[in-house]
Amino acid sequence: MTTTTTSDGVPDPQALSPDRLAAAVEAGILSEHQADQLTEFWVMPQGSGASGLTHADREEVRFVRGFHDIFISIGLVVLMFGLVFGLHGWVDDWLVAGISAVVIWGLAELFARRKRLALPSFLLSIAFTPFFFIACVGWFLEGDMPSLDSNKWLPAGDLLDVIPATVLVIIGAVLFYLRFRVPVGVASISAGCLFLGALLFDLAVPGIIESNLAAFFLVVGLSIFALAMGFDSRDPKRVTLNSDKAFWLHLMASPLIVHSILSMVSEASGTESTSYSTVVIALFLILATVALIVDRRALLVSAMSYLGFAIGYLIIQADVSEETAIAVTMLVLGCFILLIGSAWQVLRRGLLKPFADTPLLRFVPAPN
């Protein structure tokens, strides 16, 4: 096979056609995983090799490859909104969700399996499980969807119906992932399994989750973080799809961990207090340290709003105007984020230097 290269020595991506790769998978010449590995290898600079590959940024997220992906994605969003609003009022909501799930699967056959478009595959993957969940729960409850709010868990009488519906949803999510191999699908499967575990636990000990929501979500968040680290440890060089799977799990774990801890703190001290603001800043610093060690900025995203609130509250205590407090808060927060982002690798080298000869570096990316 001849290789066409660009002026900087990188193989021309057009020389490895996605359509030809998809045809090779269909013919059984390559597996989906092998096709993904070949695509990753094909765009490496010549002579780097898998072991010698270095990235300026190891937290790459491969879910958009060009404006063509964005253009198709816009069409998918418009189509699904039109379908849902068009069916709403004609049939039950759970039937609308079921029809939508079937349409999503059909669209995924074209755009995810055949054309292998990154962003459309991502959107279809994250849309399938919620629609399928609503459809399954509505089917098992004969259209009588349980009402949920921030202070209520699933009604006890509905659990025996919701549990088999959830099992069916997990099976559907697994089949969707096995069919299309979109990394974010792992997050959907994980969420379904954790939800099922919560249902079973609440069935065994009724009311315990509802009375301990913050602690429950903290356990869930830490469990998802542990799973994400499991995928990260398989790919410390961040060159396979395990890295993408871990990214979405980290992004899902972060808000659960942050919100649950701060909910427990606010119950003890209230949100309008210096102690609460101090805890928020301390929590952010701890998360920043963990994020630097594991090289995952996603862990900090959910804490940003809380950090801004805490900084703003402390500035207001200096008896300044509301406008000044907002301006200073935004300036401090923006500078802090830019400082961490710009000095990310420098900070990582400093943090990981004491662990240079320890097993830790076998599980996290080596500092650049």
Automatic annotation (TrEMBL):
Coiled-coil features, chain-numbered ranges: none
Keyword Membrane recorded: yes
Protein origin, superkingdom: Bacteria
Organism, scientific name: Roseibium limicola
Segments crossing the lipid bilayer: 70-88, 94-112, 119-141, 161-178, 185-209, 215-234, 246-264, 276-294, 299-318, 324-347
Keywords: Membrane, Transmembrane, Transmembrane helix
Protein name stated in the entry: Uncharacterized protein
